[in-house]
Specification:
The longest helix is centred in the first third of the chain and has 19 residues, at 3-21. The strands form 2 sheets. A 5-stranded mixed beta sheet has the order 5-2-6-7-8, with helices on one face. It has a 3-stranded mixed beta sheet with strand order 1-4-3, covered by helices on one side. It is an alpha/beta fold. It starts with a helix and ends with a helix. The protein has helices at 3-21, 81-95, 165-183, 187-193, and strands at residues 26-28, 46-53, 61-62, 72-75, 98-99, 107-119, 128-142, 145-159. The relative contact order is 0.19. It holds the Pfam family Lipoprotein_16. Keywords: Signal. This is Lipoprotein. It comes from Zhongshania aliphaticivorans.
Length: 196
Amino acid sequence: MSYSSVMKTCVLLAVMCLAACAQSPQAIRVAPIFPEPLKMSDNKSPVHVRVSDQRTNKVLGSRGGAYRDTAVITLANEGLSQPLEKALSAHMAAMGFDVDSLNPSTTDLHVIFTSLVYNHPKEGGVGHDMDMQATVEVEAVRGNEHYNGRYRVKRNQKFFNAPSDAENSDLVNELVAEVLNSIFADSKLVAFLQNK
């Protein structure tokens, strides 16, 4: 084997190794799947649902890899507000609420996303860690009555290899569903929504 053949083989192997370390950017479509809801409102309490995206950073994080600064994870074009308003409204309707009612005693439920993070930290180590965090603030208003709450989910998950596009999408949607479900663990908010 000649010297040039050995060099070509070495260069080819180096390029393949670098390519294996690279991750491409990913845009995730938000479509959370909620668990089967508990019936919370037997009297069809009227609620109007709004979702706002007030995150200061629209990038969820990095997939990691050799080019972590360009291997970013973002949301698809429609963002958070529109798909989550539909999903949360359907979930609350399944709970027994009268969603988008024209009743004058309707509670306006405004869910505000202030953070959504899905990021591979810079530190190396064994495995592939993903840090996940979601924070929402809730403003519920009915006439002169108000209720405010803040809800947060934070966790870290370790993988043997970098998660695939499908795994990333599933994990982000699970995180979104989890933080939205945590709202309904607040008994004071639920009582306010039920007008009790």
